[in-house]
Amino acid sequence: LRWASSFSQPGPTESDPSEGQVFLSESCVKVGTPGSSLGSEFLRLQVEGGGCSGFQYKFSLDTVINPDDRQGQRGVVVVRVFEQGGARVVVDVDSLAFVKGSMVDFSQELIRSSFQVVSNPQAEKGCSCGTSFSVKF
Fold it and tell me: In Gene Ontology terms, what is one molecular function of this protein (predicted)?
């Protein structure tokens, strides 16, 4: 993974675009490291059908990467773990196709605090709340 500040965007450093990476912003790393507000939990990122633009991001917190996360049918890896500065984000391979090259950020505002996907090169457009998007074809 490449370290990035909260406001920078991932650059064209991938040697193989099919490899797929997810980047973590500085604020995401600060919140997601052990000993922070998340403790020993890590972030799971999934993409589901739905939302006002066709697909939506789903974030959840977890403490265990299960054996079935790593081994799907026929022993195929079904999740990728992206770690930076002790912060971990787990993305299943189906969702990774929709978010590769994206940055996960932590946003803190007066009315809410949340993890968000920003700068998604796979998204054509998104809704104003930032939780749903449509895919480039």
Answer: 4 iron, 4 sulfur cluster binding
| Structure-token pair, residue 76 | 């195929």
- Per the CB < 8 A criterion, the answer to whether 105 and 113 are in contact is no
- Model confidence, pTM: 0.75
> What are the phi and psi torsion angles at 4 (to 5°)?
-145, 155
For residues 26 and 136, the answer to whether their CB atoms sit within 8 Å is: no
Give me the amino acid identity at 67: P
Q: Which CATH number fits domain 23-135: 2.60.300.12, 3.30.2130.10, 3.40.50.2000, 3.40.630.30?
A: 2.60.300.12
Judge whether residue 59 has pLDDT over 90: yes
- With cut-offs at 50, 70 and 90, classify the pLDDT of residue 104: very high
DSSP tag of 67: H
| Alpha carbon distance 81, 89 (integer Å) | 6
* Gap between the Cα atoms of 62 and 79, Å rounded: 14
